[in-house]
């Protein structure tokens, strides 16, 4: 089994290119409030979405190594681009459960058997990896899939310009081809996008269902921990420790926005 | 002197966080066509504009080391954020001329004695360093300076969405406070911004003079090389060698856009 040496009281390890993955942490804190969480954001090298698959795989391995060295019981890749390019490699490299955001999102998107036309918005790296398109097509034949690179959304979310008229124009440009093709489901395949849900609801036909990486990943993680009998049995509220490879006031403020609560002390991480 | 060991036929070394600094290279190729150029873009860790001063200084030293190890005769910091945070450190660390973009821009902005109100647009990192504000205030007392962080411009330029209506809305939001304050000069203090000049000309009053980092830095570099008697005396056209810390089709296409001509072979750089 090999599983026994992972003590259930050990923290869950999360990593992302920056602080966007904290939307996943927030969803996990809601579902699994007594788990301890160790979060690593690679803010020194963010974003991953525009970089090469080789670079992303190297970064993801260094990020995961940091978490494993600190004794986490499982790894959550809280970044769509890193999941898209590095998940198989991470599963080969580390002898503990590695959960990505893609499988969870795809499962959730296809839970409704009536789904026929799925739209995906994500970073360029995620879309070009074809990871979502493959996963969807494998699970349901005959599905119509429309993938849309949306590289300007992360900068708008990070600037907190979500309600700026320019953000609406950018979103309309990205969404128009998807709406024209009559999608019934839109996958928000970047951990920054949950913050866009109110604007997306306003711009999209009411019938379009939104599937976001954060909540679907949290639900998937819970199912996996139950299945593997790895839930933390402590009664108290779990702690959250945040490590960033580059620290700045900017990143700390952004972390608080993604987490929607005080984040506690944030530490600088040095990767091996 | 120590200068004699730098052979005039050695290449000029340029570095930037990415490929934006190629606007400076292009301007230098126009002014100094027979110089060889070695360019390093730290695409694996871009952008620098949102990162901490400590991270930027560390990155800049590694970038400069790469160039020095390859025998360049001078270093051009073709990045405003890196100039703002790391120029003094680089000058201390390396025994060869190190040229930044700020001094050159400030000199050019103040060449006209009638200048009274200067606006600056740049990345958050450059503006918060106060490097431009300090340099301007030191050179001319009584000058009125308005600095505007413009973090969304780089993403729009990189996406080639310069003519998208959203880009115009973003620019108007950034420019409005500067125009209201009656600036007579606008410093484009990011090496990506020369590509925005046509849109800026359309949005700004005709009387506002634009000062861009690329041409002013090239002129400054030429003056410095003449002063130090370091011009390359070869007759033929100089070569250009581009090294990027992360290679992708995306970055190669972007490099061609900034350079406005074929870039030749682009190599992957591994920093020490």
Features:
homodimer; disordered N terminus; 2 domains; four-stranded parallel sheet; 272 residues; Rossmann fold; six-stranded parallel sheet; alpha/beta
Write structural notes for this entry.
The structure is a homodimer of 272-residue chains. Chain A has 272 residues and is an alpha/beta fold. The first copy, chain A, folds into two domains: 3-101 and 216-268, 3-Layer(aba) Sandwich (Rossmann fold), CATH 3.40.50.1860; 103-213, 3-Layer(aba) Sandwich (Rossmann fold), CATH 3.40.50.1860. Chain A is 44% helix and 16% strand. The first copy, chain A, is built from eleven helices and ten strands. Chain A has helices at 22-31, 53-69, 80-93, 102-109, 124-129, 131-139, 153-159, 165-180, 197-203, 213-227, 249-259; strands spanning 12-16, 37-41, 74-77, 98-99, 117-122, 144-149, 185-188, 209-212, 240-244, 266-268. In chain A, the strands form two sheets. Chain A has a six-stranded parallel β-sheet. Chain A has a four-stranded parallel β-sheet with strand order 6-5-7-8, with helices on both faces. In chain A, helix 4 (102-109) crosses helix 6 and helix 4 (102-109) crosses helix 10 (213-227). The longest helix of chain A has 17 residues, at 53-69. Chain A is globular, with a radius of gyration of 18 Å. Residues 1-5 of chain A have low confidence and may be disordered.
